[in-house]
TrEMBL record:
One family name in Pfam for this protein: Peripla_BP_6
Domain of life: Archaea
Keyword check for Signal: yes
InterPro entries: BCAA_transport, Leu-bd, Peripla_BP_I
Every Leucine-binding protein domain range: 39-378
Protein name in UniProt: Amino acid ABC transporter substrate-binding protein
Keywords linked to the UniProt accession: Signal
Amino acid sequence: MNTTDRRQFVKAAGLASTLGVAGVAGCMGGGSDRGGDKFKFGVVTSLSGDLRFGGEVTRRGYDLWKKTVNENGGIEIDGSKYEVELSYADAKSDPSTGADAASNMISNESVDAVLGPYSSNVTLAVSPIMEKNQTPHITGSAESPRIWEEQYKHTFGTVPTVTLIARQAAEEILSLDPAAESVYVSGVNGPFSKATASAMRNAAQNKDVEVLAYDLNPSDTDWTSVVSSAKDADPDLHFHGGHIGSHVSLLKAADQLNYDPNGFFCHYGVNTSSFKDGLGANAAGTFGATVWLPGVERTGGKLFGSAADYAEASQAEFGEAPDYTQAGSSAAGIVYQQALEELGAAPPLSDSQKSKLVSIIEDIEVKTFYGDVSFDKEGDFYHNNTSTSPLPIQLQDENEAVVVGSSASASEADYPVGK
């Protein structure tokens, strides 16, 4: 038995012990007596609670994929087309609630596969449920390296781990002229946010930039106290690992206390309407990171012809431009679409067909508007799509995100910001 198989056996045995024989039997997918006219996908994401902003972004991505594939007649299997149905469960921004929702969905909804949560902590709670029930599971959002280190066979992710995104973008920002000599790193003490802050710190250390503080806090912390400490430290740059809510709170506190380092780098969400609306004009100049922008040329391909085509469809449907989380969520649906076409089985899927679907996804290579998607088969990033390149960005004129840094297509950064 190899290392991966052994880890899967231990996890399955542990969960079986926890649930008991009857509980496991109740959760298993088994055969289904539902109608076979549609492929049914369960979706577990945060539609309420602190992470609802990001949860709604994933929902837009999944919904736009469903709408577009259905407008094209559905997923084609052996000459017939089958529409897509999505069944949502609210994780309420809580890992245990997300795990319960996933268990209930598999027991009661007879889903063929699952589209996964917005946040890493909920994904880490949901993935063992998918593993025990041998249910295919693709998240279009979660980025914590802990997910991929667990080596879950049935879980995949279209967004590269934050370990790669935050580190590479941070190194680019630290190299702007004049090169920073010091940085203050703050963050929220959760799986994704801690991994982000850690990657930022590592980037600074790799560039021989002094890290004045590495300050992790609860999600409900008073960010004015963090800003006060940072202002006393007087860094060249301030890096922050968190979700949109903590970014907005931190930068509002910085404005109130007149804390103005040469720039702020907040990785996720600076290109979302929630971030821009939360800060208004004060969002300008903020650095972030992405793996996708509407104006960046990618391979095009299945369903949406190009990044610009996808952005146009999103604007028409939701009245706002998409960010990379929404794009990654739609790409997760496209991966399922191609994999199901390769599988060639009509809905509903049997357990053996679900197992075959997982094997197909593991080997898949899909050209999409988001970029080429494939998944690592071994190592620390097992089943993560690491092939999509990170892009450092900055909000500039009218809070539009532009690529900055060393690439040939990059715009000139406003740096030091506003000085």
